[in-house]
Write a structure and sequence with these properties.
With 263 residues, this protein is an alpha/beta fold. It contains 7 helices and 14 strands.
Length: 263
Amino acid sequence: MNKNTFKTVKLSKGEMNIYNFGNIRLHAYRTNDFMDDEVFIVEKNNKVVIIESPCFFDNNKELAEYLNEYKISGMLIAYHGAGASFLPEVPKFATQNAKNYSEIGGGKALIDNFASTFGNIFDNSVHKITDIIDDGKITIGGIDFNIKKTNEAYDIEIPEINAVYTHMLGHDCHSIVAGSTHADAMIEKLKTYIEKGYDLILTSHYTPEDLKDAKAKMNYLENLKNIASKCKNADAFKTEVKKQYPHYSGLNYLDMTAGFFFS
């Protein structure tokens, strides 16, 4: 599946890019919110499973209306626990560590920060998890998923469309990189994706990407470590990264990365 082969449905605020795999479809919802969030809906036999949740009230309403014609079998809540006004009656699936992340951990700290930044347009309520899941295969709505725990939450493999969902990639934007060790872990994960030959890599803050994008991100991460090793402080690091990647978005993430490399 080519990442650019989709049908687009324009909505009032966001847009839906629909990938057709025959008996199964992927709806990639671009929220156009302040954080460029993406929500993914896997559809089979008119049943859908939602991966992640929008977190701004207008997106919650818009996506709920779009899904009116489908039977919603469940929602996989991994890294984005906010937005609990979105489909509160639907079963919510998460690993225990993902639940902790959103309720009392680093995810909750981010939710509180976003609420302070965006005010009352942001839905800071946290989804109530109804089903605790673990590593391995799970079937929801007739669709198989493979769950893989991460430090914060979990990634999701979708075998029927040869795709994987993880939190962040972004081949031409900065990401939060918590130092060299974290960069190495990200590189190893991307190597695994390439070895498995996924058609699509789905992430929370970018449109669907492919293995060429994964290779570009690996090169970026290796170079990030190299730049950090030659700089004396965070400001010098940021200046050099911006010089080498002048068109990259996500400068707020670069600020956070610099803080990790030069804490």
